[in-house]
Design a protein that fits this description.
Blueprint: H1 7-14, H2 26-37, E1 44-48, H3 56-63, E2 68-73, H4 76-85, E3 92-96, E4 109-115, H5 124-132, E5 135-149, H6 151-157, H7 171-174, H8 183-192, E6 195-209, H9 212-220, H10 225-228, H11 236-248, E7 257-270
Parallel strand pairs: 1-2, 1-4, 2-3, 4-5
Antiparallel strand pairs: 5-7, 6-7
The structure holds S-adenosylmethionine (SAM).
S-adenosylmethionine (SAM) is lined by residues 7-8, 11, 19, 26, 30, 49-51, 54-55, 73-75, 78, 98-100, 115-117, 120-121, 223.
């Protein structure tokens, strides 16, 4: 069994299955962010913590072959697979990098996006300041985080709770506290980073599952794998059965069900 631990290790281990288990999730969440950033042909855009390219691909398509789309991620496997997947788009570069200390030159991007990453970082305020410094004058920053979720997600997450260390760096435990607890908390991070026209847009995304087993597959395919890795292997089947029982009670006549999640888009513009 892979050792529980750092965020990068978990994302390296999920990279191959990430966003590939037929659940509309990262794509629709990123699509909302890309819509709000209103990228124009020829612009220079950056995607921080690009994962498997849920935002990077539509950003690159929006800027087109005359533009430039750079994505970076701390997980080498994410970088490797996303560079391969986006090799058909010459305007794209995918790099290894740390969102807490981006290495791109200051003042060079017309739009900076980051979808579902900020809550993994030890100092979100410092990170947003560093990201804002990458913007050209009148450049736009957009950050996607989570708002309220369907209570049923929580009831699945609770099945892992007895096994989890208190400080598990997982979006489902860190992503609802501090600045992530409210629109105002997130807006304050952007204002404190010196951005203007700070605003919030909220959208509800529905994750559709064919069956309870499909939900179990999903839990292994993204950052929630960190929770599984804290469950002793000889108790995996017990947790799996508990999820199947709980989610089985939500099924419609086809066996499927949908869980909703509010996504919060925090947006701002660099003065200039
Ligand atoms: C929930 S995924 C989101 C990926 C992608 N933005 C999407 O919307 O599908 C979080 C991503 O952040 C990356 N990540 C976590 N900490 C990071 C850091 N310090 N610097 C850069 N990337 C990081 C992970 O490797 C992972 O790919």
């Amino acid at each position: 069994m892979a050792k529980p631990g750092g965020v990068v290790g978990v994302f390296d281990r999920v990279a191959d299955t990430y966003d590939t288990v037929d659940v509309p999730w990262f794509g629709p969440i990123a699509a909302g962010l890309v819509d709000e950033l209103r990228v124009q042909p020829g612009e220079r855009v950056l995607d921080i913590g690009c994962g498997r390219g849920a935002a990077l691909r539509p950003l690159a398509l929006a800027t087109g072959p005359r533009g430039r789309a750079v994505g970076f991620d701390l997980s080498p496997r994410m970088v490797e697979l996303t560079a391969r997947d986006l090799a058909d788009l010459p305007q794209v570069t995918v790099e290894l990098g740390d969102a807490s200390a981006p290495q791109q030159p200051a003042g060079t991007f017309d739009a900076v996006a980051s979808s579902l990453v900020l809550f993994f970082l030890p100092e979100p305020g410092a990170a947003v300041r560093a990201w804002s410094a990458l913007l050209a004058p009148r450049g736009r920053l957009g950050v996607a985080t989570f708002g309220e979720q369907d209570e049923r997600w929580r009831s699945v997450d609770e099945l892992f709770t007895p096994h989890l260390p208190p400080a598990l760096a997982d979006a489902r435990t860190t992503g609802t506290r501090g600045p992530f607890a409210s629109d105002e908390g997130m807006e304050r991070l952007l204002v404190d980073a010196g951005l203007d026209d700070v605003r919030t847009v909220r959208r509800t995304v529905e994750a559709v599952f064919r069956s309870a087993e499909h939900l179990v597959t999903f839990t292994w395919s993204h950052g929630q794998r960190a929770m599984w890795e804290h469950v002793p292997p000889d108790q995996h089947e017990e947790v799996r059965q508990a999820i199947l029982t709980r989610a089985g009670s939500w099924a419609d006549a086809t066996g499927g069900f949908a869980l909703s999640q509010v996504v919060r888009y925090s947006l701002g513009v660099r003065g200039g």
